Amino acid sequence: MKILAAFMLLFVTVTKCHEPFQVIFQWSSIDVVWPSEEEQQFAIDHGDYVAANNFIAGIKFWKDKMYLTLPRWKDGVPVTLAVTSTTPVNKATAPNLKAFPSWEMQKIGDCSAFQFVQSMEVDPKGRMWVLDSGKMSPLSVEVKTICPPRLVILDLENEGKVLRIYEFPSQVARHGTAHLNDIVLDHEDGGMAYITDSDRDDPGIIVYSLSNNTSWKVRHDSMRAKPEAVRFMVAKTPINMPISVDGIALSPASSTDRQVYYSPLSSFHLYSIPTSVLKSNTSNVDEHVKELGRKISQTDGMMMSAKGVLYFGLLADDAVAMWDTKQTASFATGQRVISRDHERMQWPDTFAYDADGNFYCVTNSLQNILTNRVNTSIPNYRVVRARTGVKSYQYLEDGTAPKQPEIPTSLANRISLAVTVGLIILLAFVVQAELSAATPSRSHIIDLELTSPMETIKSASEIKTLPVRLHDFKGKLEEVKHVTLLRCRVQ
Q1: How many other CB atoms are there within 10 angstroms of residue 320's CB atom?
Q2: Mind telling me which Pfam families this protein's record contains (predicted)?
Q3: Can you give the three-state secondary structure of the chain, one letter per residue?
Q4: CA spacing 20 to 30 A to 357: which of 45, 91, 397, 438?
């Protein structure tokens, strides 16, 4: 019991105002729940699963599930978006991860499936916004450009059903070089997403409008890697890699003049820009970008709480720091380290909140992935947790969520639906005509099912002929979700 307690309560808490982090999960290597033992062995034999190349990066929570990303930085990563329980089942702290939403959505080379997922965010309605860069194995000898970069929205309340797919145009996210790194969500103005693109030659913050289903990129010199911050050490491992704008955070939903905070990984500085400027699609943002101060180390992920506390990692210090934006206006004097552990806090990558006010961090020793030094006989990847009692930036301070935007039905979807309905009706009439010609003395019923959020008509007894059935459907055409020709019945 003493050993377990020492394992779970591990971090030196530098400030007394924050509870210590506890290790909830840790893995020496990541494995998945395979469809069968035969498929697992086939993947191992053919290099489709290489244990040392699988690591966790992104983390988010919804209800009793923990969602994780496994970016395909190298070959041999069969699953790039996965799910497991929020808490260990039967005390298993290194569970195999389940493909989410399915194995079909993990197929390499299939552009309708996920190719390279590093980050995602879950809104208060249970919709997961997933970033897919579309490329493969950027750390391998040959980078494989397979699919265009895109945003995919999944419904976690409906087994991960796809609600929207948006492919970024090449002038926004360059196909083959874009690296969709991180994302924050804004419920205002019909729903907005702010996405960091770490493209080495064209970095910037991508703005996506949910209501208009369009996007643009905001570029600024502050978003580029800085030469003085390219080289650093993590656990005595040298890193020399220019990485542009990476971490991103958004001030709380209760804020009146909301700000986006960001920093290139290869930078010591934190910057901010108003969301109003990002939404305006202005090409010159010089006067609006504010340099807030210098950090003691490079930073990967960052996140804001509902009460305006910004959390961020310090890579070279194996630490997590915070800045209470509402208590101290100055970042330079307000930032402070809250946890440091030189063994277990190597490379604090991403952060997340659950619905109960717990704050999580993924530490993944990414320096070993980057330098081919992964030792699968020791713990490498951890999910740690601390109690804060608040929720994420997407919620109000009292824990409630502001009204969330709906996903509108696009014109293309409505046209596609109208064509589908028309074809079904035409087919039904053809069948009815054929039946009438063959058996003129009998009556015929064509069952047609239309399903919408408003009503579902299923019973053939409700109508006598096809036209009446269509008129009896009270929903709006754009709300129809499913159209099926059920059967033809001769009476």
Answers
A1: 29
A2: MRJP
A3: CHHHHHHHECCEECCCCCCCCEEEEEECCCCECCCCHHHHHHHHHCCCCCHHHCCCCCEEEECCEEEEECCCCCCCCCCCEEEEECCCHHHCCCCCEEECCCCHHHCCCCCCCCCCEEEEEECCCCEEEEEECCEECCCCCCCEECCCCEEEEEEHHHCCEEEEEEECCCCCCCCCCCCEEEEEEECCCCCEEEEEECCCCCCEEEEEECCCCEEEEECCHHHCCCHHHCEEEECCEEEECCCCEEEEEECCCCCCCCEEEEEECCCCEEEEEEHHHHHCCCCCCHHHCEEEEECCCCCCCEEEECCCEEEEEEHHHCEEEEEECCCCCCHHHHCEEEEECCCCCCCEEEEEECCCCEEEEEECCHHHHHCCCCCCCCCCEEEEEEECCCCECCCCCCCCCCCCCCCCCCHHHHHHHHHHHHHHHHHHHHHHHHHHHHCCCCCEEEEEEEECCCCECCCHHHCCCHHHHHHHCCCCHHHCCEEEEEEEEEC
A4: 91
Q: Given a cut of 60, is residue 32 above it in pLDDT?
A: yes
Of all residues in the chain, the percent with pLDDT exceeding 70 is 79
pLDDT of residue 489: 42
| Cβ count near 185 (within 10 Å) | 23
- Per the omega criterion (within 30 degrees of 0), is the bond before 101 cis? yes
Band of residue 128 on the pLDDT scale cut at 50, 70, 90: very high
461: how many CB neighbours lie within 10 A of its CB?
Answer: 7
Longest dimension (CA), the chain: 90
pLDDT category at 136 given cuts 50, 70, 90 is: confident
Asked if pLDDT for residue 143 goes beyond 90, the answer is no
In tens, the pLDDT along 220-275 reads 999 999 999 999 999 999 999 999 999 999 999 999 999 999 999 999 999 999 99
Residue range 141-147: mean pLDDT, rounded: 76
Please give the class, per CATH, of domain 22-387: mainly beta
Residues 116/108, Cβ–Cβ less than 8 Å: no
Q: How far, in Å, CA of 339 to CA of 14, rounded?
A: 6
User: Residue 422 has what pLDDT?
Assistant: 55
